[in-house]
Design a protein that fits this description.
The structure is a homotetramer of 298-residue chains. Chain A is α/β, with parallel strands linked by helices. Helices cover 32% and strands 28% of the residues of chain A. The two termini of chain A are 33 Å apart. The relative contact order of chain A is 0.13.
Chain lengths: 298, 298, 298, 298
């Protein structure tokens, strides 16, 4: 199967591990209830991270990775029991995911290849725990490159007039739960509110500035004009407000007066691909919880 | 009292919080046992960090910060119960510390003032949760500066011949459990194995290189000679092997061919004070567990 | 004299060196003309930096540091000859400064001590080539601290009603060419356009965000709210447009969801003082040329 | 031609620019002599960098990039005139290179693909001013990957017994001035002193540690063992002393106790490819002068 080449190697699979993400109102006894539930079933907690915005009256977040032989086949039952015994009595929101199943990912891209190639290459070498199942582009340019990774490439042209039809086509290709994540790897079209409503899948975008500075178009040009001494990139979840969604990761690189806009663009590309790869990795490892318009990254 | 001026402000005290540090052989049920013990007593876990070198047969490390009204007065009882009910059955090593009591710290220094001043100043503004009770120096130079922070300054000269007597004097000044931590803030004398055996208090040193590069004397001179493009500093616990103890924190700064040894020394001083302050802060917040010759920093 | 204690040590003085800064329309032969002028007088160029926005029709910037025995006493004559022989024929703007004379600096501050103390320490150590001659504050709080450095402290209270009189007093204290540089070391009052017009001295401000993000008030609060993963600081020349002047230096530090606004403020303080110290150092070493609303830093 | 696809785009060529590199004993009048020589021929200096280890009795280094219509066709004549009029009288060593001619580069690699692919991508995008003409590997693994870039791939197996013959073959492939630079992109064989003597071409190696720490084999394993908080990579010119040649560039990334050796290896790979790309770029732009066992990078 096409996508198998981009998934991580079997040696990195954790066949008997799962991840539990919890958020709820903070209060005494939450961790004890959760960990006792798991201990009673023979699970061994491998890693645990938690955060509370305020021990009194705040919001509580928890991520547990646990080892439990055969957990992959017993997820449905485990979720049901956890919901009944632990989550419902405390009004928790939770997910339990099989850590051995790589996330199914679709990538949207326009003409710049650096973020796309970096993700394809990292997936192939097993760095990112995901299976890239599709690349969608409004340009045909990168088809041959993607073909080398045995990943299907769909060219969906978008013009002002055809945007509704194009998005309908994209929804067919990527909607309906076929993917766990969509990554905008320098996709230069704005997705409509309607598309975002209907896709039902989290979307990560890479913006080529350290937001909130230089939101919108032409960030490197504006960085040059303003004379900043650092340029950066920001990976964030996509919401209806352009460049305003919850920030997952950011990084910057030092620049100086000698750098032209063209050089800023080239240097920035290195930051973009690194920042995006980290954000995608964290999402695929179930490390991110959204809290209002911020993220908790464990 | 002299040291009171350097402790954090009362507003930052957590009067009803304590910290539990645990290390033991990994296995199922540890977290459940610990958190159930705390939940049964009405404690609310504020933060929790854990790490296992290997879920099967590895070493397990845990740090919990919990809120429990009146915990400061009930520490003895709590420790005893925890020891009996949780720790002994599982062969755990543990500490429970009152988070509201600042660590008592002594600083040893020679003639460079940058690390010393930075610690005194951070303590005064309440950044570091510690009370600096004494500064010991083999030089008299910095006495006036320290006096301004209302901290006692002891001048203990050290020569090759008087080193045993000097160390005996230092043991009197700083030994016997009078301090929770000793910080070598660019103290240029090597402490003897005998002193280290007898002091019974953890000691943090700042070394002016990114260890293991340039261990020993003259690191900036040797960095210039080798033509490295980064210089750094390392904070580590002191052991009998000079510059070989468990590393707590490191950082670096970019340099180039134009920088003279004098400039490297100046630029490095900024890294030294920052790295040392972080290491001291983490120690004072009970964030560091030593594992062999490494540290786990939560 | 009071300020002498904060100036660099004599050992670091370059008694026979001067610095030439040039900007002009780019074109062939500029460097040859300048360096031939200097060579003819027996000067040896120590360092040279140049930059052109565009070799054809762009703006050219040059900084030369040169060694010429006795140059300190011959500056007037040298400037006149350079103006006549080199600068006027090419429409150059230029400065020639005696590198052995530390810049005279006044600092304005409100109640936060971190930037002020860092500058005082660095000046005392001889790190910054300047003599701090005055500290002006709208609060009395830091008088004792400054007094320890033998620097005069002027308390000039500012209220909405008394602002014109206060600024008139500040102009008396710092105007008339008494200082080469004014540093706003977290001075929380906005200086009026009239003051800026009349002071006739460059002013460097430190803003506690990575501009253009979070210009204006409350940057750490807004950084927390937006959920950024980096916070920063920006040193810039002051212009009439608040937080819009030419940026000299910026830096950032990584933060995460766990950091409270109070912790962001504390971590940011370390970046603020470092960034400000670098900007002040570069200014004092005649390394900065303003180009439109940007800086060229050699 | 095969290599044309990896060279930069024509739009980035500077057809009328050349670069002059000079090193000599420092003394008055050098810059004036050089720049007057160029000005007399109508050249316009675009960028100029210089450095002196000591204005009195030190070593002087200069890099000039200048614009001179038709310089590409007049290099021989220009070199001869410069040698006669400027260089010989002052005992200068110098190079004048045509900035419009990309460097011809051969890459040696074993089985890790990250550094190789990164260089191929960057060259294809026109980021690096070079034409990759050959990849030599002691393994056949990466042949298909390299073939996609239309670059020849030579598999030269090396065993203990066949090393002399293998190196003879490599000399045939890469010697005789066919290349301007050889890059060891994680080539795991040690090149013999004899090979280095005879190849007559500079060689850049990437080592997977921040030298001088962890020179030799297994740096990530040793980094884990020592518990360092930063790992890094170093690009350096190859000399007969393994991992001891002049350092061109270094960088580091923060790690912690949670990272396994496998993760250090993966994170380090990102640093390795970035550091190597910078070093290769600087070499291809004639920015590096070797000074003893250090580098001056302009």
């Amino acid at each position: 199967m096409a996508t198998s080449t981009t998934a991580g190697t079997a040696g990195q699979r954790n066949h008997d591990t799962a991840r539990l993400l919890v958020s709820c109102a903070d209060g005494p006894g939450i961790v004890a209830a959760v960990t006792t539930f798991l201990a009673d079933r023979g699970a061994n907690i491998i890693t645990s991270d938690q955060y509370s915005t305020d021990p009194e009256g705040g919001r509580f977040f928890l991520r547990l990775e646990f080892h439990l032989p055969g957990v992959g086949d017993a997820l449905g039952e485990l979720r049901e029991a956890f919901d009944r015994e632990v989550a419902q009595p405390r009004g928790m929101r939770f997910h339990i995911n099989d850590a051995s199943r790589p996330k199914r990912v679709a990538i949207m891209v326009s003409r710049y290849d650096h973020c796309l190639l970096d993700l394809l290459w990292r997936a192939r070498r097993g760095e990112l725990d995901m299976a890239i199942g599709l690349v969608v582009s409004n340009w045909p340019d990168l088809a041959a490159e993607v073909d080398r990774f045995d990943v299907p490439y769909e060219h969906v042209p978008v013009t002002r007039d055809t945007k509704p039809q194009a998005e309908a086509h994209e929804l067919e290709l990527m909607g309906g739960g076929a993917f766990d994540l969509i990554v905008l790897a320098r996709y230069m079209q704005v997705l409509s509110a309607d598309f975002l409503d209907r896709i039902g899948t989290p979307i990560i975008n890479i913006h080529h500035s350290f937001l909130p500075a230089f939101a919108g178009a032409g960030p490197y040009e504006r960085a040059k004009e303003r004379g900043v001494k650092l340029i950066g990139a920001t990976a964030h979840y996509v919401t209806e407000d352009l460049d305003e969604g919850p920030i997952i990761e950011q990084d910057v690189i030092r620049v100086n007066h000698r750098h032209t806009v063209e050089e800023l663009t080239r240097m920035g590309a290195d930051i973009e691909r690194t920042v995006l790869a980290r954000a995608v990795q964290w999402h695929c490892e179930d490390r991110i919880l959204v809290h209002g318009n911020s993220t908790v990254v464990f």
